[in-house]
Design brief:
Layout (H helix, E strand, L loop, with lengths): L3 E4 L5 H12 L3 E6 L4 H11 L5 E5 L5 H15 L4 E4 L14 H29 L2 E6 L3 H4 L5 H21 L4 E8 L5 H4 L3 H9 L9 H11 L11 E4 L6
Parallel strand pairs: 1-2, 1-4, 2-3, 4-5, 5-6, 6-7
Helix pairs in contact: 1-2, 1-9, 3-4, 4-6
The chain binds nicotinamide-adenine-dinucleotide (NAD).
Nicotinamide-adenine-dinucleotide binds next to helix 1, helix 4 and helix 7.
């Protein structure tokens, strides 16, 4: 029986690449998305081309009832969830002087509460199965902070605390929980940056380039494999050496 991976916010960017990489490893995939669009259709096709099953599950991760419903849907169709990747995330960057309360709470609701909501609904099945892997996508700015991102970096720092606490709670059930902290990765999240800003960022990265979604997906592939079975509660950076 194939293993099953749920990836949130997986119709594009890093989430999509993680879904494709795990599909290549033979995982059946549940792609969570918020709004159906062409990206979703294309992602589903690309996953199915790897000869595994793909079910798209609609839901806003910041809405607890949505997450409860879509996790049940996956269990009804696949019977289990072996891997959960909490990837869905948003930014609403601005300096605190200009930041509206909703800019703060929306980012926390999706990035941090969303991670809790999905995990809370998945964990009973992993506890019962006495096995599971959870990978939470944090960010280097959750460690370093970043001007203009008080909301986003607070959410990503929160994910790190959540990851370590959960890792301690569920280790005895052989459930491993780790966080991945990407640096600057080329996706639509960073496409909004001006070219000169991107060049400036790249010049400060020891490897002198922005990362690719594949760089993050390859670490996730390792963290769900048997080769990482003694690693839990860690935050691993994928950042070209930006943060040392
Ligand atoms: P992206 O914007 O391309 O992808 C984010 C995905 O999350 C989208 O598919 C979006 O629809 C989905 N999403 C947003 N809100 C959602 C919600 N409420 N419910 C369900 N899905 C929702 O961005 P990305 O760069 O691929 O980012 C993926 C993750 O990686 C995010 O958590 C992001 O914070 C993190 N990250 C990205 C970078 C980077 O440089 N790109 C760096 C560090 C961390």
């Amino acid at each position: 029986m194939s293993k099953v991976a749920l990836i949130t916010g997986a119709t594009r960017g890093i989430g999509k690449q993680i879904a494709l990489t795990l599909a290549e490893q033979g995982y059946d995939i549940a792609v969570n998305y918020r709004t159906a669009n062409e990206e979703l259709e294309e992602t589903k096709k690309e996953i199915e081309n790897k000869n595994v099953k793909c079910i798209p599950v609609q839901g806003d991760v910041s809405n607890f009832e949505d997450t409860e419903r879509f996790v049940k849907e996956i269990i009804e169709k696949y019977g289990k969830i072996d891997v959960l990747v909490n990837n869905a995330g948003i930014t609403k960057d601005t300096l605190i002087m200009r930041m509206k309360k909703e800019d703060f709470t929306n980012v926390i609701d999706v990035n941090l509460t969303g991670t809790f909501n999905v995990t809370k609904n998945v964990i009973p099945y992993m506890m019962k199965a006495r096995t599971g892997r959870i990978i939470n996508i944090s960010s280097v700015v959750g460690i370093t902070g970043n001007a203009g991102q008080t909301n986003y970096s607070a959410s990503k720092a929160g994910i790190i605390g959540f990851t370590k606490s959960l890792a301690k709670e569920v280790a005895s059930r052989n459930i491993l929980v780790n966080a991945v902290a990407p640096g600057f990765i080329e996706t639509s999240m960073t496409d909004v940056l001006k070219e000169e800003v991107k060049e400036d960022i790249a010049s400060k990265i020891p490897l002198r380039r922005m990362g690719k979604a594949e760089d993050v997906a390859n670490l996730v592939k390792f963290l769900v494999s048997e080769d990482s079975s003694y690693i839990t509660g860690q935050v691993i950076n994928v950042d070209g050496g930006m943060l040392m």
